[in-house]
């Protein structure tokens, strides 16, 4: 980032104190202008459409629309905007979906200002803006033997959407509607809607049938199969 270049940034984080702290930190960094801040993924996508920032610093676990889905929408509809994830979580279930959605950078919230600037510079130059911790995890993942699992279907059966499949897997995992709502950061009413829709599409009457359906179509694994 040269002295004469200003990078326009949107910050997305659902926690007000954290979001305002990040905005304040970025305001102290040379060559960075914060042009907007968002409390959820939907607002982040809207701000990107309105402001066309260079980079979004994206939290992952937010209400209504999480960071992974927001990243996917931004990278699909606004490819000129790069996404750097800035999150508390560095587990595989957070890291890999975010990268698959199109994030080019990934930092945890213990990153300092220099690390944030470096990640922003990296993604704008076409490189990956990953913290050393994340780089190590990627290398470890590559070195791990692939688990033996049944191949999932190429396309969800019966016209199920990706979100409905996700809900179905959580049902098969034994989660209740409130637990699914907390896992997906949506309302219980939204979970009920997804369940009603997938039941209608698949011709299911109850959760027991749904679990059997998920196993039969390779959308979830029966207990104990992962150890084979």
From TrEMBL:
GO terms for molecular function: DNA binding. It holds the Pfam family Response_reg. Gene3D superfamilies: 3.40.50.2300. GO terms for biological process: phosphorelay signal transduction system; regulation of DNA-templated transcription. The modification 4-aspartylphosphate is found at residue 59. Keywords: DNA-binding, Phosphoprotein, Transcription, Transcription regulation. Residues 8-124 form the Response regulatory domain. The keyword Phosphoprotein applies. CDD domains: LuxR_C_like, REC_NarL-like. InterPro entries: CheY-like_superfamily, NreC/VraR/RcsB-like_REC, Sig_transdc_resp-reg_C-effctor, Sig_transdc_resp-reg_receiver, Tscrpt_reg_LuxR_C, WalR-like. Residues 153-218 form the HTH luxR-type domain. This is LuxR family transcriptional regulator. It comes from Streptomyces noursei (Streptomyces albulus). The lineage of its organism: Bacteria, Bacillati, Actinomycetota, Actinomycetes, Kitasatosporales.
